[in-house]
Every structure is written in C-alpha cells, then in structure tokens.
Design a protein that fits this description.
Four copies of one chain form a homotetramer.
Chain A: E1 4-12, E2 15-22, E3 31-39, H1 42-48, E4 65-71, E5 83-85, H2 96-99, E6 133-136, H3 139-142, E7 144-145, H4 152-155, H5 158-171, E8 179-183, H6 187-198, E9 203-208, H7 211-220, E10 224-227, H8 233-240, E11 246-251, H9 256-264, E12 266-274, E13 282-284, E14 297-300, H10 307-318, E15 328-333, H11 337-345, E16 353-357
Parallel strand pairs in A: 8-9, 8-11, 9-10, 11-12, 12-14, 15-16
Antiparallel strand pairs in A: 1-2, 3-4, 3-6, 3-16, 4-5, 5-7
Helix pairs in contact in A: 5-6, 5-10, 6-7
C-alpha cells in the first residue's frame, strides 16, 4: 500500500486545503523530490479564488526546492539525496516548441508540438509542490543541482519569480544605458527591477504605492520610485525622463491601467515587456500606439524554465550579484498552509513571499 | 522672381487640387529633384478625406522618382542630372533615433532626438512629391541613384509600399520554413507577401476578397488565398495549418477585425507584425493573447527609408527576384491628378497603383 | 538469438566494408528504424581515409530515411510503420547545450551538459545509418514524419547537407538585398547557395571549377559563377560587386585558401559563415582582418538537427520552393556500398550524391 | 591672419612633438571645440612608434572633452559655450555604413559608402584632439552635451576606451549568468570587465600580470583575477569554470597568445569578442576551433561613436553605476605632452591614463 503524504489541494473556489495523497509512482523519465522548501505565488491566489481554473483536488504550487528521493529508470546524471530545484515551468526538451527555443509553450505530446502555456505543469496540469513530495516530469531536462553553500531560501525565488521577472528585462533586450520603467513592485516586479539593473539600465523607475515595496525596490536597483497613488505615473515618468520617454516599459501586474501607462511612457521604437497575467481584454489606445506607426514592440513572456535556466539563476545568487532573501517575509509549516494563504492572499503584514516547509 | 511649378495640394477635407507654387530654394543640405514619376498612396487618401491632418496648402505625395536638378552647397557625392529615388521616409542620419537604427522615428532637431513618425516628412510636414519638383532634405542620407537599365515604373514602389511591405516580413524575423498569414492584399499587403516569400516562408496565406488582388498575390508568392467574404479567415487558416497556427501574421489594413484575426491565428511564441495605419483604439482579446502568457511578440513598423534601404530594394528589382510593375494599373499626367485621386480613392476599375508623370 | 542485419563498417584507414551485426535492442527512449534510403557524406570519406578518427567496427553513415520498426517503451507520439527521417545530428533535447539552443554541441550526460560536436552521434559515436536498421537515440526529439507524397529521394538531403548548407545562410543572418559569395559548390555549397536565395540575397556568387556543379548552382539560385581555376576569385568578386565586397561570404570546403578568400571579399562589418571541416590550423591575414578593427563576424556551424529542424526542411521541399533531387546522381544497393564509396571518394562520373537502398 | 593654437603632431617614427598650427576654419557641418581635457591612447603610442602610419604633421589624439567655440553655418541644435564631448569615432550619419548601423566603418564620400575603419578620423585622417582646438566633422551627429555636474575627468573615458571596452561585452551579447574571461586589463580590458558586469555576467575572470591593474579590475567587477606570469591562464580558467569553459572570451590586447587563449577557454557555441589591434597575421588552432564545427562566433569591433553612444555612456557615469576616474593616474599640461608620451609609452609609474589639459 502506497505511503501517504501531506498536500495542499484546490477544493473549490475560495478554498485551498491541506489533504493527503499517496506518494506517486515514479515513471521512467520522472524524479520524485522530497520538498524541503516551497512558496506561494500570486497565481496560486488566482487559482484559489477560482479566477484561473484547475481541476478539483489538484495539488497546488510550482516552486520546488528539495532533495531527490527517487529517480526514474531512464534518468541518468543525478543521484538520490542530491539537493536540487526545478523551474515552475518544466519543459520536456523534446517538443517542437522546445526545439525552437520557446519551451514555455511546450506541446510535448500534442499534434504539432506547441501548446499555449503548456510548459507550466506543476499545480496547473499535474500535481504541484505544496506537498511533502512532488513528481518532476522529464527530470533530465529539469533538475538543477543547488550549488554548495546556498540555502533553500536563497534559491527559493529561482523557479518562478526571479525567472519571470528577469525575463521581462531579457525579452526587452535592455542595453547598457537604457531607461526602464517597471509598473508594480510585487515580487515579480521587484525581480524585473533587478533584471533591468543586471542588464545595464541606468535609469530604473519603479511604480507602486506600497512604501515598503518601494523601499526594497530602491535597495534592489531602482533609481527612482513613483507612488501612483500620489502622482500620475505617466506624467511623472515623462518628467523624470525630461519628456523623452523610456526605452523599455515592463508591466508586472496584469491590468489595463498598468498596460496602458506602460505604452504611454514608451519612446518611439521602444519595447513594452508584459509579464502580468491579465483577466480581461486589453485596449491599445490609438495615440499611445502612434496609430501603429511608432516602431513599437510588445512582448509577453511566460516564466522560462528548464535546468540550464535554473543553473544560471542560481549562479546569479552564488556570485552575490543579488540577494533575494529579503523577499521572504514570513515562514510557515506545510501544516499551516491555510493560514499562509490567508495572510498572502490578503497581502497582510507587509508580506512579499512566504517560505513553506513540510 | 522664382519660377513656378505645378503641385497637388491639400485644400480642405474632401479636396486635393492642382495648384502652383514657386520652385523652392535649395538649402545647403538639400537637393532639388525634378519629378519624373510619382504615385498616390492610401495614406494620401486618408489625408484627402481629412482623416490624417496636414496643413492646408501642403503639397501631397511621398514617392519620388526623379532627376537631380540642383544640389545644396554642402552636398557631395552626387551630380546634377543623375536619376535617383528617395524614400517616403527621409531620415536625417544624425538624430539620436537615426544613430540608434530607428530612423523612421527621426527626431532631428527635437530636444531628445526622437519624434514619433518624425522620419515621414514629404507630404506630411514638408511639401511633397505630387509636383514638378520636390526638395529632398538631408540629401546625402536620402538620394539613391537608380541602377542603369531600370525604368521609373520598375522602381516606383521602392520609396514606400515595397519598403513598408517588406519590413512587415523583416521585422517579424521570418525564418526559412515559416508559415505566414498576410491580412489584406492591397499594395502593401502584396508587398508583404513578396517579402515573406523572399524571407523563406513556405506557407504564405493571403487574405482578401478582391479576386484580382488574390490572383496577383498568387503570382507574387502566396501559396494559399483566403476570401474572407466567403469563409471565416481564422477557421480557414487554422484548417490550412492543420490547427497549428502560423509562425507570423502580418496585418496590412489597419482595422480591428484584421488585427484581431492576426492574433487569433498565431501559434504560441509567434509574431504579429502590424503595418496598418489604425484610426481607432484596438482591442486585444484575452484568449487570443493567452492572458499575456503566450510568449507573443507584436511589432509595428513605419516604412524604413534612407538611401541604403532604397539601394537594397532596387537591388531586388535589378536582380529580377521580383517585378512589381504589374501593380501599376493606371497612368495619369500630373495635370489629371484630381481624376487620379477620384479613381484611386474609390478603388474603381481594379486599380492597384497609379503612375503620375509631370 | 538476435537477428542479423547488413551494415557498412569502418575497418581501418582506407577501408569501409560490408559486414553483419545483430539488430540492436531498443532502449526506452530509442526507436529502431528500418532504413529505406541513405547516402554517403564527404565526412564519411574523411572517416574512410582515417582523417577523422572513429572506432574500428563502427557502422558509418548519418543520413537516415526509413520506417519505424520498433519504439522504445517510453516513446509516445509515433507508431510503428510510420515513415520518418532523423537529422545527422540527434540532440537529446535535455542537455544544457540543447536548452540553450545550441543543440549540435549536445553534452547529454557530460559534467556540464556541453560537448563539442556532441550532437553528432550516428556513425561517429554510435552505430550509423549505412545499414538495414539504425537505432535513433532520444527518439521523441528526433523522429520527423515525412509528409505524404514526398519520396525518399526528395527528403534524403534534409538530415545533413540541406540542414548544413542552409545554416550557413541562416547563421549569417542574410537580409533581403544582400550580396553573398559561396566558396565551393559541392553538395553543401550548393545547399548554401539555395539557402542564400531563400533568405533574400540578390547577388549570389558561386565559386567552383567543376562546370557541372556551376551549372546546377545557377539553376538553384546563383546569379554569378566564378571558375577559380581560370580567374582569381577575390579579384573577380570585387569586380562583380564593383569593389564593394560582399555582405556575407560562406566557406563550404574547409581549406585555408577558401577561408582566406572569403575574408578578403567581405565588406567591413560583413559576416564570414564557415561550414567547412578543416584539417589544419587556419591563418587570418592581418590586412583582410583590418587588424581586428573591421567589425567583422566569423561564425562556424555544425549541422542543426532535431525533429523541428527536419520538419521545417521538409516543408521547404513539400512547398516546392526547392527541389534537391537533381543532386542524387547515382544509386546503389547497400550490398554495393564499397563500389559506392569508390565512386564517391574519387568524385568520378560527375557524382554529387549517391542514394543507397538496403 | 588666422590665430595660432598649440598642437601635438606626429613628426616621424619615434617622435610626437608640440607644435603650432592655425586654428582651423569652420565648414558648414563642422563645429570647432576648445579642448578642455584630452588623453593619450595606446593607439597613439602605436602611431608614435610608426607601427600605425599617419601623415607627417598630423595632429594626434581622438578623445575630446571641450566647449563649443564656433558652429558651422548649417549646424542646428547646439550653442556656443556648450560643454560637449565627441567620440573617437565620428560617423557622418549619412553613409551607407551608418545607415546600416555599422557606423564605425563609415564610408562617407566613398563609392559605396563603406570604408574599413573609416569612422576613425581624429588623429588618423584629420587633425586630432591633443591640441587647443579641434574641428569636429558632421557636428550634428557627433556633439554630445555633458550632463550638468559631471567633471571633465568623469567623462574623459567615454570617447574611446569606455565605448570600446563596453562594445566587447555588447557585441558578444552577454546574458545574465554568463561566465566571461577578459584577456589583458589595460584601460580597454578594464572597461570590458566593467561592460561584462553591467551586462549581467556572474563569473568575470580578468587576466593580466600587473598587480595594480588586477586590483582595479576586482574593484570594477572581476570575480577572479589570473596572473598569467604565474599560471597558465587556459588551465586556470578551465579550473575556475570546472572544465566547462566560458560563455564569452574578450581579447583586449591584440596578440596571438591572447587571441589563442581566448579561443581555447571558450565553450562550444561561445563567442570570442576581439578588441585588440593586431600587428601580424593570426593563427586559429585547429583543435581550439573544433575543426570548424564548434558553433563558435568571433566578432571584432571598432569603438562605436556618434552622439547617441556618447549620451548613453555619460548616462552610465551620471547614474553612478560606474566611476572610471580611478583610471586617470597622471595629469599633464598640453605643453608637457612629450613628457606625457614618455611616461605613457613606457608604462612607468603604474600609469593607466593621463589627463592632458591645454
């Protein structure tokens, strides 16, 4: 009889609850991880609220730090007991999308090898990481050993928010000397701010209204902070850039006002890099879009995954270019996960990210 | 007393008329061209209708083929009597936008060196080409000698529609083996179809409803044509691509339905390349946008100009890779320009482009 | 007792011979192909001559067209009896190199996930395709179904020379209107010529001395041919380009004279794309290199593989943009492979490529 | 009678001397700068030694910080008395090379618009900056106002070594998490180290043998320093990278040993970015080049110039991302220029850069 493990599952809109499931069987390409630390993502809150649909009973969570408990029969190059992380996105490596370099849209097993957001599996299409154990698919493409000396909390942001936030800067091809505006300074926006700094931006304008976030933002790299509850952020950014506009605007919230403001502060020829998860249609204002003649670029990005991505992000931590541990503001046991959701979903007590340990 | 020349000017919404103006003085960086052939663009019709505002009395037109009549005192490297073209967009070469490679947004003389659509000067911010003579600004950056043996009509499409249409393919970075859908097969859409073919696309789906245009489209490179008045173009393109979607969708009309359809037929990770001039806000449907998680790219492009661009486009003609003379369906004298506008603006008699000769 | 199959093996320098081996066991990620057509590559001749070392007894050949005979237990998405090809390069999909988009340098299983030329396995590090059966590793990343209606010979060039030749054009980022010189018009050089044309080059100068090859070259896309046995190719290319030089020079032979000539005909800021397999150190002449100040780019490329690459190349064939069957000049049974090597290695009888059928 | 100014001229191999010339006439596109600070470059020492030929009597120097004394009749957008810098490279903006984005190879006025290293004019093809006044050609493309509050010495590195060094990192397209080796830590190598850091590299290995340079290197961003006089740099870099090799190797000296070592430490698929000015042919070792099959890229770069480049570099200084004033180790009056050359050319007294003030 299979052993049981504790898991946090989606019960119904409004409720994520602690439950038990059997520890899963390990297929030939899989690895079973024993989770040592995980966290809750804003997307999990969307799931809890029923705004993003997943199957009832699914284990939630997509940010694993753990230890290899068991390897599939065809998996080579790892050993049990090894400390690893995997990305929130777990590409197969062998779909057409992966072989084209767009692995977050992994369509492994589909007719054409492409599937929108198909690389996001944990806590979306398969059981996730807010659990004592998680099964990692296509383990050889996804398990990234944690460098010696790094703690769980030091690498806890790599699987999702660091990868997502950095990609906002990377996809916009920020150059040395660029000016960048980042709309919203939640965990992903903060990581976009860091990514902009690491990419050589010299003017980095962070927009939010929570003083604590803006303060962290300045420590992590923002040269200017704009409190949108006090000033019009478009006017203020145009003032800061002396009416030039920014080279790159990063949207990190997923709303019409932030998307639209990002477009309005962009110089002709600039790039709007969108990271937010939207929940309704978007409007592109004609004048902000120069009637389609502004040589603008708009890019959207789903969190890049895979073991090489994780390796690189951990290198950023290991080299001490960035320390993201200040983002971990609260800690809970897996047993207390419902309390953790309650705090996190209500954004109480200045929470940025919570560390969950089974 | 200055000599006079015939010109076509914007009088008021609804009226472009033949008139007379003095032949302009030549500044140190300018060249005076004697126009031998020019044409009317869809944008000129927008101007005539008052949908795109220009100053009353402005000479219209931005597609010059001509002969150098006089060179500015500081212009080197050309001689009077030389046959040349200039692009619809005449970048200065020295603005910050130009020095960044975004010369269509040329902000020569502005505070920061950027100006939305600032590279488009002829018939927009300075007197244009539907005239006996036109003054070319920043002549050394803009005059491109016509290779021996090419006729005026062979190079007449280079200044605008060939440059614009090709850029739709180029900015999308089409790769060998890509599938591409082109929405609308007016002159610019036809050139985008050619551009897709020259870039190595293997499935090129042209969408229109005018049989004559679809017929030319097939001659110029379309592998499939879709008549949107008979079938739903999104369904049909998904059928043609066996539900995969296209790698690149090019919008060449400037309307919400074509923009939206272009997004709906795009595979995850694909690129929507927008060429149309829009006249109202655009809506991005949430599901077509994968809620912002589809790794999509949307690019807009204003016609690239400058002498090197013109040189390259004329090379395409000279090498016989493409023959665009079939697009010239009608010919008028400059004296008959009002009749030409009447025909062209009403899209009568299967008109694609009209050649105007002073 | 395992069934036997016929194979062509490397015996010792100077000798490739027909032999027998057991039909291999199929591992969980493998597929066993029954070869229906294969071919001999110039690289195989290097192997035969002992210039490129492989293990004695290794089955040679890396260009498979065949039918799936048996699938590994973990392979999904294919069925036995399906007609497929695989690339000469068979990336794992899951190495760090693959996850970075450099899959030809696949280091699956190595310490860091990178290995120089590690993606080339068939007939190099594992048994190859000049055999009745071949085992394809990482089948899900590598098997590409042949579109209905295409013959074996139509797709026979896809696994190697078409992929390699095209990559010479692709890696150089050829733009519409570029001038390109291709040094050597063997099978790979001919495919580079085709790739240049598909990428929009307008002046394509092919250099060789074999009249038959230059004739095919012109049919496939060359605008000019230069016989280097009659004229100095550098002088001639500078004459053709009116002393401008070419935007891109592709080296497709692997010798100092062709590499050096490619550099000498390059305009400042141009790209030398090298495809040849060299057998000795190379010299970069100081003046051809502008002392290191010419903004030059030199790129080398190993044949790209993987199923998405193969799908795209077969699309080029299916769409009739290119027909490479004229390259198949001779046909042999596998039993006659030694005669085929004799003909091919001595370049007798105008041979370009030989089709081998078990 | 024209007023005289002091200048440093090339007299003959081995001798640069103070002299007098008339203050030049200002052409319509020019600006006359009164130099307030300039410096000596390693290239100037090559010129002095006769290793790089220039005309006898030419004024040397290409790094101007100054004040606009007089503007040409066609120059708009500046005013006399304005503090500006211009790049070592002064592109016209209007040549074909400039319009292609390769402005350092500016061929303004040549047959095709391309000229190898043609953008380098100061102290090479026209009188340079080690003088009381210098004439800036194509002023509108080249004059970059100094932001308020920055001193001459703060921006003195922008015209050449900062632009060149950074371009070594930029042309290699360094990504966040890359490992980079920089060979030689003279002024340009130090700036390449800074550029690598600003581009997101996490392992930056600086190679030199001068302790003082390696010490500055660590302050500016190197994570490791390798003294090549004590260890084999190839072995040591492979040890540091745990045998993986580096993603990018930057050559900043211009010799065979550094070029070759850069290639040997490169991982497959990596990029060698060459900044050095070579003085003899180079050899590419066969094995370091993977016989041409390693998916390597080699790029060379001449210092990017133009006012937008200068604006961006001064933004890096203004934003306090970098302070390069520690590179100014010695200060001289223009009258003492011969002593400055003596010190600088013999690399005495730990000199990195000298500031020269007229």
């Amino acid at each position: 009889m299979a052993q049981k493990m504790k898991v946090a599952i989606f019960v119904k809109p409004g409720r994520i609850a602690l439950d038990e499931k059997p520890i899963p069987e390990v297929g030939p390409l899989d690895a079973l991880l024993r989770i040592t630390t995980t966290t809750i993502c804003g997307t999990d809150v969307h799931i809890m609220k029923g705004e993003y649909p997943v199957a009832q009973g699914l284990t939630i969570g997509h940010e694993p730090v753990g230890v290899i408990e068991k390897l599939g029969s065809a998996v080579r190059g790892y050993h049990e007991g090894q400390r690893v992380i995997a990305g929130a996105i777990t590409p197969s490596g062998w779909s057409n999308a992966c072989l084209c370099g767009v692995s977050s849209q992994d369509g492994a097993g589909t007719k054409h090898g492409w599937k929108a957001t198909g690389g996001w599996k944990f806590g979306n299409t398969i059981d996730g990481c807010q659990a004592e154990y998680v099964l990692v698919p296509d383990a050889m493409a996804n398990l990234a050993p944690v460098p010696d000396g790094l703690t769980d909390e030091q690498v806890l942001m790599c699987p999702d928010i660091m990868s997502t936030g950095f990609s906002g800067a990377e996809r916009a091809r920020i150059s040395i000397g660029d000016s960048v505006a980042v709309f919203a300074q939640g965990p992903i926006g903060l990581c976009a701010t860091v990514g902009a700094k690491l990419s050589g931006a010299t003017t980095i304008i962070a927009v939010d209204r929570v003083a604590a976030r803006m303060s962290i933002s300045q420590k992590l790299g923002a040269s200017h902070v704009v409190d949108f509850s006090k000033v019009d952020p478009v006017d203020e950014i145009m003032r800061i850039t002396d009416d030039r506009g920014v080279d790159v605007a990063i949207e990190a919230l997923g709303t019409q006002p932030t998307f639209e403001a990002a477009l309005r502060v962009l110089r002709p020829g600039g790039c709007l890099s969108s990271l937010g998860v939207y929940s309704s249609d978007l409007t592109i204002p004609l004048n902000a879009f120069a009637a389609g003649l502004g040589d603008h670029t708009i890019v959207t990005t789903l969190c890049p995954g895979g073991k090489e991505r994780m390796r690189r992000l951990m290198e950023v931590i290991r080299s001490e270019r960035v320390d993201l541990t200040p983002l971990v503001t609260h800690r809970y046991k897996l047993d207390e996960i419902e309390a953790a959701y309650d705090l996190f979903s209500h954004q109480r007590d200045g929470v940025l990210k919570v560390a969950i340990t089974p």
